[in-house]
Amino acid sequence: MLETETAPTAAPALPPELQSPRAKLVYLYLTTNGDATVSEMGDSLGMKKLSLYSILKTLRKEGMVDCDGTTYALN
Questions:
Q1: How far apart are alpha carbons 60 and 57 in whole angstroms?
Q2: Which of 2, 46, 58, 73 has its CA 20 to 30 A from that of 66?
Q3: How far apart, in whole angstroms, are the C-alpha atoms of residue 5 and residue 67?
């Protein structure tokens, strides 16, 4: 019986314009989870909502994230 090897999963590519470690974390979270509310991100990432709103505002301004009501997702 042959044993199959699983190739390691490549990390998603981050846009080069993302400089902030926390912005990268939020971007990766949305890459992995699809969409989320600020409360969900705050609970999962251990970040304060005020910080998340600031990061998400910047990501929206850069055209990387969109908001539908209270849910954020990558463009």
A1: 5
A2: 46
A3: 39
User: Can you tell me the distance from the alpha carbon of 48 to that of 45, in angstroms, rounded to the nearest whole number?
Assistant: 9
Structural domain range at position 63: 21-74
Cα distances (Å, whole numbers) of residue 29 to 66, 70, 75: 14, 16, 14
Residue 71 and residue 67: Cα distance in Å, rounded? 6
Q: Locate tokens 């990387």: which residue?
A: 64
Report the b/e string of 27-47 with b at 16+ CB within 10 A.
bebbeeeeebebebbbeebeb
CA atoms within 13 A on the CB side of 38: 15
Q: What CATH number does residue 60 fall under?
A: 1.10.10.10
